[in-house]
Amino acid sequence: MAANKGPRNATPIKASRQKPERVRRVAGAHSARTSLQDRFRSWRQHHQDSFKDALQRLNAARTSSAMTILVIAIALALPAGLAVLLDNARAITRGWDGNAHLSVFMEMNISEQRQRDLASDWQGLDNISRTEVITREQALAEFKALSGFGDVLEALPDNPLPPLIVVYPDETDPVTLRALENRLAEADGVDLVQLDVEWVRRLHALIELGERLISALTLALAAAVVLVVVNTIRLAIESRREEIVVVKIVGGTDGFVRRPFLYSGFCFGFAGGATAVILVQVALWWLGGPIDELLALYNSEESLTSMAASSLIILPVFSGILGLLGAWLAVGRHLGDIEPNF
């Protein structure tokens, strides 16, 4: 009986010794847990460190970084500069539609009073804002002043220029203008009606064509920027292959490894966009003098304007997004191929 007491008493002692160890393990598991605030603080700190690391690496490889940034800048400066020039052309020609008019040439034998009566009657019609009467004498005097053939005209026995009524319409819609042209041509004493707005239509058609060409060029060069960043980030990943392997061995996630490369792509794009703004501004300053002189020869009060204030911000941000996209594509394609070999 006494011999059996020893084994029965051993079990409770052993259980009592194991209980504190289990309690310590549970307590250790609770202490290892991190709060949401700590995780957010760590995530934010890594973003800051990744951004600083991207800037330091761009500064460390200044030559290659400058070449990449310059390529991006040139690719973006071309459509941006053309867009600014097109905006200037649109602003200069914005008021030209108001100069569209119909030249109504009267018969040679019509009286000046009849000419003025027709002009007064037409001014009361719909779609006509005003009319202007140019008599034969006024036409001859104007032609002498502008043509430089005054001596030749003095030698002619009679005035060869017909009387004219200039009609200014309210609208420049092609259908409205054609209907008004036909209506004026049916009046008595009218010899010819000439619509002087075709050149304005051609100019607007050229501007619209330019807008579409710039849009196509922007898409093509934006794709080129993405490809440049993809190739740059791919080379950066290959040069840091061993570092990536070590980070993955110690438990670094793909997101942790990916983040510095994404910031590098954004920095390349943003710097390229800012450089593109500088290139466009320098080009506009260089072209400003000759263009203003040309506009002055045409008695235009307009002048060449630079990029809009919003474009100065939008272009670098847009370029940064393109760089971020290129980096994402490069990292998604090549980062998965780098895994530790055990």
Automatic annotation (TrEMBL):
For the FtsX extracellular domain, which residue ranges apply?
102-193
**Keyword Transcription regulation applies:** no
Concerning Pfam families, the annotation shows: FtsX (PF02687), FtsX_ECD (PF18075)
Which parts of the sequence are annotated with region: Disordered? Answer: 1-33
Topology within the bilayer? Multi-pass membrane protein
Which residue range or ranges hold the ABC3 transporter permease C-terminal domain? 218-331
Which family does this protein fall into? Belongs to the ABC-4 integral membrane protein family. FtsX subfamily.
Q: Which NCBIfam families match?
A: FtsX_Gneg (TIGR00439)
> What's the name of the protein?
Cell division protein FtsX
